[in-house]
Write a structure and sequence with these properties.
Helix content is 16%, strand content 36%. It has three helices and ten strands; from the N terminus they run E-E-H-E-E-E-E-E-E-E-E-H-H. The strands form two sheets. Strands 1, 3, 4, 5, 6, 7 and 8 form a seven-stranded mixed sheet that branches. A hairpin with a 6-residue loop joins strand 7 and strand 8. The structure holds zinc ion (2 copies). One zinc ion binds next to loops.
Length: 173
């Protein structure tokens, strides 16, 4: 494992324009919350590759890591782990009024690596958190997981959801 870092002193690593550094650091992105769901990184820390380039007026930064994110599958509700790939870039120019060129994670020469890693991971999360892309989800009738289930066990009398049968009866009256 690489050295753990929550923040990085950029000027120490790249003191003058043209300087570049590549380093592997352990980051702790923490937990992500989406509505009711909480997702965490398995083992908490991930080793990230950080590229620092000192430019004339500031820094160009790149952060890459793969995080094993753990949470519940939104379809079958079973615990799942998804390898989320992060490749994020930031540019920070000290003397500019252009907000595009100001990184919210750089304050002076200090990089807030932990916040950047957390936000970059949140942005890289899949739109639907699934245990597998073809997760079959839950049976609409009995609520059991349909993954690896025998379809014959979920015929439930062949008429679909029995609640609809009740509705049909009501309409006939
Ligand atoms: Zn699933
Ligand atoms: Zn069923």
């Amino acid at each position: 494992m690489a050295q753990r870092a929550d923040s990085i002193d950029l000027t120490k690593l790249a003191p003058s324009p043209g300087d570049g550094q590549r380093l592997d650091v352990d980051v702790l992105p923490g937990e992500l919350r989406y509505g009711e769901e909480t997702y965490g990184v398995d083992g908490d820390a991930v080793t990230a590759r950080l590229d620092i380039s000192r430019t004339i007026g500031g820094y160009a930064l790149r952060l890459r890591f793969t995080a094993p994110v753990a949470g519940d599958c939104v379809r079958c509700l079973e615990p799942a782990e998804v390898a989320v790939e992060v490749d994020a870039r930031e540019v920070d120019q000290a003397r500019t009024s252009d907000e595009e060129l100001q990184s919210p994670y750089v304050d002076g020469d200090e990089l807030d690596l932990r916040s950047w890693a957390r936000d970059a991971l949140a942005l890289a999360m899949p739109g639907q958190f699934l245990c597998r892309l073809d997760c079959a989800g839950l049976c609409a009738v009995c609520g059991a997981s349909l993954n690896d289930a025998d379809p014959a066990d979920h015929e439930h009398g062949g008429g679909g959801d029995p609640r609809w049968d009740k509705l049909r009866e009501l309409k006939l009256e």
